[in-house]
Amino acid sequence: MIKYKIVNRGSLILVIATMVMAFILGCSESRNLGPTAMTYNGSSRDLGGGSVYAFTTLDTSGKPIAIGLRMSETALAGLQAEPPNDVTGWETIIPLPKEAATAGYDHIGIDWNPRGHIPNGIYDTPHFDFHFYIIGQAEKEKITAKGEDLARAHKAPAPEYMPEGYILPKGTEVPRMGAHAIDPSSSEFNQQPFTKTFIYGFYDGQMVFLEPMMTKAFLETKPNITDRIKLPRTYAKNGYYPTVYSVRYNATQREFEISLENLIYN
User: Fold this and answer.
1) Mean pLDDT throughout 21-43?
2) Are strands 179-181 and 196-203 parallel, antiparallel or unpaired?
3) From CA 153, how far away is CA 176, in angstroms rounded?
4) Taking the CB of residue 101, how many other CB atoms lie within 10 A of it?
5) pTM of this prediction?
């Protein structure tokens, strides 16, 4: 949520060396998970004192069943202590492996908010916004959420496209994003401290992103959770949509995994 600044970092022996390097860089590398699934990794990006890359998992028929990212534990060190001068957070764009195209997602935007963002008293703690975009970056750039575009940015979807129990408050419109739909029954709106939540993004009445959001402090507990996602009755755009999201810490790899799972085609 809110406004962000993009961070840009951005012979047989030879063959083996090339393969090892490709693996290190995470360039659409596949990982066999057994007889039921295969995972494909995208290229990595720097984040904090570590790195992050996206992945997608396909079943044996080639259908996507999960999409997410893996972030090294060291990424939590070396993060910016202050937001940019003109915006509230730092954005890192994470490319997806080409195998994720069938799922309907375009890219992931990780937004690190050193001081959080509005509403004050709720989300004003250091946290990450993990935006799973179902629109392209060129479409994002057209969203100004100002002037005549403000009405489009705040336009609510038809009732059947609004997730169960969610509302679209005014004032949540953000350039390059749209408006943010929240669940008033979430714990952070009911006298509990914010740790994790799930947001939907809309622009011109259309869903544009899905967003697990969580505090840095929550990740530092090295969680292993899977939460149900509240869903709309149907979706305006065909694609694979999650019914749960998970946050896991892998002690062997020393990395966090944030993923949308149990993808169902609509």
Assistant:
1) 61
2) antiparallel
3) 10
4) 12
5) 0.88
